[in-house]
Amino acid sequence: MRYYPILLDIKDRSCLVVGGGRVGTRKVGTLLKCGARVTVVSREFTDHLFSLNTDGKIALRRGGYESADLDGMFMVIGATDDMILNQKIHDDAEQRNMLCNIADKPDVCNFILPSIVHRGDLILAISTSGKSPAFAKSLRKRLGKQFGEEYDVFLTLMGKIREKLLGQAHEPEAHKPLFEALIDGGMLELIGAGDTAGIDGLLARVLGGEYRFNDLMNPLTVSGFPDKQ
User: How confident is the model at residue 229 (pLDDT cuts 50, 70, 90)?
Assistant: First the structure.
């Protein structure tokens, strides 16, 4: 295994994208979802990047890439089709021990980006180590059909339960059998079916009657929960 799997917290980190075209725009969107502070350097920008800049969500610098653009950055993503420029971005980043990804060019990256399935706090990362991005995309589509929005609701509920248990001074070590009982009892399937009564019944059996779905979370605010009471 060549690549070390890792999930990065880039919230409020300064990240640079070199290239303001379609690929760069897509990279910017993902960085913003993760809370990064994004700067884009390019001679041209898509309309969407201009819109994000107008809304104050990203910074734009029109012009060619310069080594100094990396000053103060945590990460750089190259999104150009200029191999000489891509190599320079990589070399500059390596000199600074900086994270560097060049889109679709794993040989000039020190990290690569997986294809992902995202359901709230559930993140499934798929990588072929750069061998076949097309196959990674195919797997993502398959997994996307298998893992529905109920996983988002399920993990949100588990988090709410954990918060309440900790607030009642429960020892964290005692939580494991409780959560295993909820999982083995079919909580995910009950959520997928929108069976609020069944969810409350399982919560009561495992945790006690004071744990009720509607008290823990509002199903109307959680995507993917088909309330079938």
Answer: very low
State the average pLDDT over residues 135-159: 95
β-pair type (58-62, 75-78): unpaired
- Backbone dihedral region of 5: left (phi > 0), alpha (psi from -120 to 50 degrees) or beta? beta
Q: Counting beta carbons within 10 angstroms of the beta carbon of residue 143, is it exposed (0 to 12), middle (13 to 18) or buried (19 or more)? A: middle
Q: The dihedral of CA 132, 133, 136, 137: what is its sign?
A: negative
Angle between helices 47-54 and 22-33 (to 10 degrees): 40
d(CA 2, CA 53) in angstroms, rounded, equals 37
Q: What are the DSSP E strand ranges found in the chain? A: 14-18, 37-42, 58-62, 75-78, 99-102, 115-119, 122-126
Say if residue 30's pLDDT is above 60.
yes
Single-letter code of the amino acid located at 93: A
Strand partners, 16: 39, 76
Predicted structure pTM score: 0.84
